[in-house]
Design a protein that fits this description.
alpha/beta; nine-stranded mixed sheet; 35% helix; 23% strand; globular
């Protein structure tokens, strides 16, 4: 297929999926469930025919794919072990035609081992159309502008570059928004200067960086152009950050929940009630430690099923994030089920020698009252040893913050815990920009 023909075809695929996208989030629940269940039936039948892992699983468990009629039946199938997917990604790649020209992506590897996921080209084109749902509330907040001006602080990751290159080669659409990229390593004073010059409608960044930026602006009394909205992605927003930004600056804080495993999972509307789950393209449930579903409102690990991708097929995949689901309606009128903000990752929960668990939010409670602490990081090592790094408003403030924090940390982590506290002018972000305030290496 020639370059022009390929771009025409890609644009036609987008146009086909685009019809009605802005209405889908407002569908009556019964119609939304029917759309979701139809996609579940198709992806399960496809997996049973063409994906080695599911072909073997269904044969071993004596499951007839035709018996999986909807979400309730899908939920009864075994959950994938994440390590199986990491170590054997080829088992989850379809042998059918869509996978032959698929694009390969790597997750950021928050557990230290990246995961390879392939996305077929049609699903990637459909992703543009599904994005209409996420763009609508941002455009509304920005006064109806079709292309709000963004200041994006982060990295042009390999995934991002690959996606943009594919869209430029495969469509006639002007894919890029009005966006200015600023490297994450730039000093906050410099980024504030750029924001004042650019006057963006939306400031976009990783959750940890967004928190640090606005805390630093307040602590150092930096003059800043206030955008119409803040958008965080890539990681959870630290506890308390949303209320601090919204109350101090009077601007809404939105988010989108995407992952390499599923490019569309959830998004905030302008009512700011939580993530609206893309139920018809990514089935989400929340499970407890025993793998069974928890009640609405209770927190647990998220298990997702990508209903669109025909290359790497992941059904009942525990993605590692912790959150809760709710059946309460959103005042915006969208009928998509609501999911809470992410509460961190399973790997961020500390297991102590005495068998107790410490959630990242408990660590946050120790530092919450201290206005001199801009950012913190707690790393658990073997033998009950902990490294604590504090970024404070200045170096003299470090000693005061350390002395205030140590009693609370000792009470939380145990009297026998060895706690080493060090000062950093600013905490380094990992490659890819993500930052984990609490991490276990034990």
């Amino acid at each position: 297929m020639s370059s022009l023909a390929a771009r025409l075809h890609g644009s036609a695929v987008i146009a086909a999926y685009m019809r009605g996208q802005r209405r889908v989030p407002f569908m009556p629940r019964e119609k939304l469930h029917a759309l979701r269940d139809a996609r579940i039936r198709r992806i399960v039948a496809y997996a049973a025919r063409t994906v080695p892992y599911y072909r073997d699983l269904f044969a071993r468990e004596r499951v007839d794919a035709r018996d999986v009629r909807g979400a309730a039946d899908l939920d009864r199938l075994p959950t994938i072990e994440r390590e199986v997917v990491r170590q054997n990604p080829h088992l989850f790649i379809s042998e059918a035609r869509p996978s032959r020209t698929a694009l390969s992506f790597l997750t950021s590897g928050s557990t230290g081992i990246p995961l390879e996921v392939h996305h077929d080209r049609r699903s990637m084109l459909a992703n543009i159309a599904f994005g209409e749902r996420e763009r609508a509330p941002v455009n509304r907040i920005c006064g109806g502008s079709f292309r709000p001006k963004e200041l994006y602080v982060g990295y042009e990751t390999s995934t991002f570059k690959k996606v943009i290159a594919f869209y430029e080669q495969s469509t006639l659409q002007p894919m890029r928004p009005r966006r200015r990229f600023v490297p994450l390593h730039e000093p906050i004073d410099k980024i504030a200067e750029i924001a004042n010059a650019e006057k963006p409608d939306v400031l976009v960044g990783y959750g940890g960086w967004i928190d640090l930026f606005f805390k630093t602006v307040v602590a150092r009394d930096i003059e800043i152009h206030v955008p119409k909205a803040v958008m965080y992605m890539g990681e959870a927003l630290p506890p308390g950050a949303r209320s601090h930004i919204e109350e101090h600056f009077g601007i809404p804080v939105l988010s989108r929940y995407n992952a390499v495993e599923s490019f569309k999972i959830g998004y905030f509307c302008d009512a700011l009630t939580g993530f609206h789950v893309h139920e018809d393209i990514c089935h989400v449930r929340v499970v407890g430690p025993d793998g069974t579903a928890v009640a609405g409102g209770e927190h647990g690990e998220l298990v997702i099923s990508n209903l669109i991708n025909r290359a790497s097929v992941l059904l009942n995949y525990p993605i590692g994030d912790v959150a809760s689901l709710s059946d309460r309606p959103c005042p915006c009128g969208r009928t998509f089920r609501l999911m809470s903000e992410l509460e961190g990752r399973v790997e961020d929960i500390l297991l102590l020698p005495d068998g107790r668990f410490v959630h990242p939010r408990e660590i946050w409670q120790v530092f919450k009252p201290d206005r001199e602490v801009l950012q913190y990081q707690v790393i658990q090592h073997p033998a009950d040893r902990y490294e604590i790094f504090l970024a404070t408003v200045d170096e003299p403030a470090f000693a005061r913050a350390r002395d205030r924090a140590l009693p609370g940390l000792s009470a939380l982590l145990g009297e026998r815990a060895r706690i080493d506290v060090s000062w950093r002018p600013e905490l380094d972000f990992r490659s890819g920009g993500k930052f984990r305030a609490v991490a276990s290496r034990a």
